[in-house]
Design brief:
The structure holds 2 protein chains of 2 kinds. Chain A is of the alpha/beta class. Chain A has 7 helices and 13 strands. Chain B is 36% helix and 23% strand. The longest helix of chain B is centred in the last third of the chain and has 14 residues. In chain B, the strands form 3 sheets. In chain B, strands 1, 2, 4, 6, 10, 11, 12, 13 and 14 form a 9-stranded mixed β-sheet that branches. Chain B has a 3-stranded antiparallel β-sheet with strand order 7-9-8. Classes of the chains: A alpha/beta, B alpha/beta.
C-alpha cells in the first residue's frame, strides 16, 4: 500500500473505482458522493452526478463537499436544477445507470434498513429514515452500496426493508413489480461483495489487501459464499489518496 | 392556520425553510397539527417540543450528517408522543404532485417490495394495459402550505432561484397558501422573467415581505445556513435534551416580539457573513 490510509479513505477509493466514464450516478451525501467526486476528477471526467436535492451534473469543489443533498455546495456549476421529484423521475424512466448509497443495516439479499432498529411501531432506535435511498434502490439500473463492514450491520434479516435490493432472493424483486435494477455490488472496508445470479445471496468477490475471506466472514452475521474467482483489490494509489484528501480537507467524511 | 390542520412546509431540510412562518405558528400555540415535509429539519424539532404536532409525514428527519441522528426526533417518536410517518422521498413528491394535478393517486415504480408500502397504507394496483404491478401513491391535499420564496409581486406571483424543491406542487395541492418573500418586486419585474415564476398569484392567499425569512437555514444565493448555530443548538440538546429546545423556543420564538428582534439575536455581522458565503458558493463558484 502506498502509505497508510484509514478505513473511510480505503472505502472511498474502492468505491470510486466502481464508477465508469460516460455514465450517470445517483449519489447520496457522505462517502458515496465523495467517491463519485473522486471518480469524476480522476478517471471518469464525463460522469454525470445526479443529486437528490434536484441537481443534475454538478462539479463538486475540493473543500466544499455538501453536507446535505440540497444545500448550495451540492449544486455547484450544475447543468440543470429540475427539482427533487423530477430528479427521481429521471431514474424511474431508466436514465440513471448507478445508484450509489450507504446503509445502516444490510441483509444477505442486499436489502437495507435506515428506518428503525426493532419494531417500526415501537422502535428501539428510530433512525432518520429513507430520504431518497428507497427510490435510488428501486429505480436506478444498478445499485452499489458503500458501507463499513461490521457484524452488527451485516445481519441475516433487516428489521425493516427501507431500500429494496433482492428482497427474499430468487425472482422476488421482479415479482414485487420492480422492473429493473437491484444491488450489483457491496463495497466495504474489507472487500467487494456480489450476489449469486440465481439465488441472489451475497457472496465474496474480492478482498482488500491484507484482508482474508476469514476476516470478512468473521465480520458478517450471515453465511457468505465465494464467487467463482476470488480477487485481491489493488491498494489505493498515491494519486487516489491525494485527490481524495484534497476533496475533504476538513475530514468531514474521511474521519 | 387552525389547530388540527395538515400543514405542508416548503423548501427541503435546511434549504429555504419558511422559518418566519413556523415561528408565527409556534407563537400562535397551535395544537394537533400534522406536518408534511420531504426532509424535516429543526422546524420539526421545534414543533415536537412545543407540543404543536401530532404527526410528521416525511422521508427523513434530522439536521444533517455532521450533527447525527436527531435526539429530539428519537425522544418523541420512540416514546410514542409523535408519529413519524415515513414515505420515500419520491413517493412524498408524487403525493404532492398528484394533489397538484387534482388526481387521487399516481402510479409509480418506487417503494414496491419495501416495508414502506405498509407504513402509509400504500396500495399496489395492476396496470390495466399490461398487468404489471404498480404502487398507487395517494394524493396529499394539505390544508395549508407555508412557503418562503426569493421574490413575489403584489399579486402573489412567486419566483424562486436555484433549487425549486417541491414548492410548486405543494402550493397547487394545498387549500390555503401562505408565503413569505425575501423581496417584493413590481409587477413589471415578474413580467420580465416569467420563466422564473414557480407559483402563480392566483394560488396565493397571503404574502408577507420577510427578508432572511428562512434564517438560520439557507436561501439559495442569498445566505448560507448557519452551521455554527446548528452546532450550538445540538450541543445544548446533547447536554440537556428537549429542555434545551424549550429554552431555545423561549429565546427565539416566544420572547422576540418581531422578526426583526429575532434576527437581532443573530446580529448583523452574522447575517452579513452568511450573505457573503452564499455569494461565494453560487455566483462566484
Amino acid at each position: 500500500m502506498s502509505g497508510p490510509c484509514n478505513a473511510a479513505e480505503l472505502l472511498a477509493v474502492m468505491a470510486s473505482r466502481q464508477l465508469r466514464d460516460d455514465t450517470t450516478v445517483f449519489a447520496g451525501v457522505g462517502v458515496p458522493l465523495l467517491a463519485a467526486a473522486l471518480a469524476k476528477q480522476r478517471h471518469a471526467p464525463r460522469l454525470t452526478l445526479v443529486i437528490e436535492g434536484g441537481i443534475i451534473g454538478p462539479e463538486i469543489a475540493p473543500g466544499r463537499l455538501p453536507i446535505s443533498t440540497n444545500e448550495m455546495r451540492a449544486g455547484r456549476r450544475a447543468q440543470m436544477l429540475p427539482g427533487i421529484t423530477d430528479a427521481f423521475l429521471f431514474a424511474q424512466r431508466g436514465f440513471v445507470d448507478v445508484g450509489f448509497m450507504g446503509g445502516a443495516q444490510i441483509d444477505q439479499y442486499g436489502n437495507i434498513n435506515t428506518t428503525a432498529i426493532g419494531d417500526y411501531g415501537k422502535p428501539k432506535v428510530r433512525l432518520p429514515g429513507t430520504g431518497g435511498a428507497n427510490d435510488i434502490a428501486s429505480l436506478c439500473r444498478e445499485v452499489i452500496i458503500v458501507t463499513a463492514h461490521e457484524k452488527r450491520r451485516f445481519v441475516p434479516r433487516v428489521d425493516f426493508i427501507t431500500s429494496p435490493a433482492w428482497l427474499r432472493g430468487d425472482d422476488s424483486r421482479r415479482a414485487a413489480g420492480l422492473l429493473f435494477g437491484g444491488v450489483s455490488r457491496v463495497v466495504t472496508t474489507l472487500g467487494l461483495l456480489g450476489f449469486d445470479p440465481e439465488t441472489r445471496r451475497m457472496l465474496i468477490e474480492a478482498v482488500h489487501p491484507g484482508e482474508t475471506v476469514e476476516t470478512i466472514r468473521a465480520n458478517t452475521g450471515f453465511e457468505l459464499g465465494l464467487a467463482s474467482t476470488l480477487e485481491v483489490t489493488a491498494p489505493p494509489a498515491a494519486d487516489e489518496l491525494q485527490m481524495l484528501r484534497a476533496l475533504d480537507p476538513e475530514r468531514r467524511f474521511l474521519g | 392556520m387552525k389547530d388540527g390542520d395538515h400543514v405542508a412546509v416548503g423548501g427541503c431540510l435546511f434549504s429555504r425553510t419558511p422559518l418566519a412562518l413556523v415561528r408565527e405558528l409556534l407563537r400562535q400555540r397551535r395544537r394537533g397539527l400534522t406536518l408534511a415535509r420531504n426532509l424535516t429539519c429543526t422546524e420539526g424539532e421545534f414543533l415536537m417540543v412545543a407540543g404543536a404536532v401530532e404527526r410528521i409525514v416525511t422521508a427523513w428527519m434530522s439536521i444533517g450528517l455532521p450533527w447525527g441522528v436527531s435526539k429530539i426526533m428519537r425522544h418523541y417518536v420512540e416514546s410514542g408522543q409523535v408519529a413519524l410517518e415515513e414515505w420515500s422521498h419520491l413517493a412524498l413528491g408524487l403525493r404532492f404532485r398528484a394533489g397538484a394535478m387534482g388526481v387521487p393517486f399516481l402510479p409509480a415504480l418506487t417503494m414496491l417490495g419495501s416495508d414502506l408500502m405498509a407504513v402509509g397504507g400504500t396500495k399496489s394496483l395492476q396496470d390495466p394495459y399490461t398487468g404489471e404491478t404498480l404502487a398507487a401513491v395517494p394524493a396529499l391535499f394539505p390544508d395549508v402550505a407555508v412557503l418562503h420564496v426569493h421574490r413575489a409581486d403584489r399579486f402573489g406571483n412567486c419566483q424562486i432561484d436555484g433549487y425549486p424543491h417541491m414548492d410548486g406542487d405543494i402550493a397547487r395541492a394545498a387549500t390555503t397558501v401562505l408565503v413569505t418573500a425575501e423581496e417584493i418586486v413590481g409587477d413589471d419585474e415578474t413580467r420580465r422573467h416569467p420563466d422564473r415564476t414557480v407559483v402563480p398569484g392566483f394560488l396565493v392567499d397571503a404574502l408577507v415581505h420577510v427578508p432572511f425569512g428562512a434564517f438560520p437555514h439557507e436561501c439559495y444565493g442569498l445566505y448560507e445556513a448557519d452551521f455554527d448555530h446548528f452546532g450550538e443548538y445540538t450541543a445544548a440538546i446533547d447536554a440537556r435534551g428537549p429542555t434545551a429546545v424549550a429554552d431555545y423556543l423561549e429565546r427565539y420564538a416566544y420572547r422576540p416580539p418581531t422578526f426583526a428582534d429575532y434576527l437581532g439575536l443573530f446580529g448583523g455581522e452574522r447575517l452579513a457573513r452568511q450573505t457573503r458565503r452564499a455569494r461565494e458558493l453560487t455566483v462566484d463558484a
